[in-house]
Design a protein that fits this description.
The chain is an alpha/beta fold. The protein is 50% helix and 13% strand. The protein is built from 13 helices and seven strands. The protein has a seven-stranded parallel β-sheet with strand order 1-2-3-4-5-6-7. Helix 1 runs parallel beside helix 3 and helix 12 runs antiparallel to helix 13. The chain starts with a helix and ends with a helix.
Length: 268
């Protein structure tokens, strides 16, 4: 059980070591403080341990930052309380997100707290369109005004939404093995990531609670590509999208893209 700051550090450090082994060079890690504060663990303990691991990550060749998520099955009032508890540590997380059970809890339920977070200069993301309908993606964009959609695979059911996502280059953080575990697709061969990518959307491949859903980064790539027949060009575009869709500075993004291009050129 996670109780002390050291517990949270150890968990995050173990993840970052595994990510580095999979050649991840930048990680933006979600965490759900309400899961822990509800059982008496302080916000300082949660953020302190996680942030300490992020600060140590460069030793592994990885940069890392934190995104604090609100649990959507809880109330917006509780989200505001969580934000108030977290603000003394504002310099230790870069943004806020919205996660947990999606169906029945539309993004607009959290319009006020996201507006406040936007005023505070935090980056905004939200789970939308994994198990929920395309309408959740629309409201995440138009009501919450998020910069990035987590999952978003149901967007393929709405041509107008697909057009908008492609035009505005809204990143989608797609998690294939999580989608499979949650029965969003009956099999990886049925996954629509290739369709989304070929339609010009800024799709990325990610891991989602990898210890629970059973797939770290390379697992997601290898199993998805084996099932769908995607090509090296798809792999390149996914990697490039991941840097462009990150919350790194423009200079940091370009440095990673240049490094990626250099690796590709070496194999030609």
């Amino acid at each position: 059980m996670l109780l002390t700051e050291q517990d949270f550090f150890d968990m995050a450090w173990a993840y970052l070591q595994r990510a580095a082994a999979d050649n991840v060079v930048h990680a933006e890690m979600f965490f759900d403080p309400q899961t822990h504060t509800a059982r008496g663990v302080s916000m300082a303990t949660v953020i302190g341990g996680l942030h300490r691991a992020c600060m140590k990550a460069p030793e592994l060749g990885v940069s890392a930052s934190l995104i604090l998520c609100f649990l959507r099955h809880l109330s917006e009032e509780e989200a505001f309380e969580t934000l108030a508890q977290a603000l003394p540590f504002r310099d230790q997380f870069i943004g806020v997100g919205l996660d947990s059970s999606e169906v029945g809890y539309p993004p607009e339920k959290f319009a006020k707290v996201f507006a406040r977070c936007r005023e505070l200069g935090l980056h905004l993301v939200a789970h939308a369109g994994e198990e929920g309908p395309p309408a959740y993606v629309w409201t995440a964009l138009d009501v919450l005004k998020v910069e990035r959609i987590d999952h978003g695979v149901q967007s393929s059911k709405d041509p107008a939404l697909m057009e908008r996502l492609a035009r505005d280059r809204i990143p989608l953080t797609v998690c294939p093995l999580s989608n499979l575990k949650l029965c969003v697709f009956p099999a990886l061969a049925d996954h629509n990531l290739k369709t989304l990518l070929d339609a010009g959307l800024a799709v990325t491949v990610n891991s989602d609670d990898p210890a629970y859903f059973g797939g770290y980064m390379n697992d997601n790539f290898v199993q998805l590509f084996a099932a769908t027949g995607m090509t090296a060009q798809h792999a390149y575009q996914l990697a490039r999208n991941s840097f462009e869709g990150s919350f790194l500075s423009a200079a940091e993004k370009q440095a990673h893209v240049d490094r990626l291009d250099a690796v590709v050129a070496a194999f030609r």
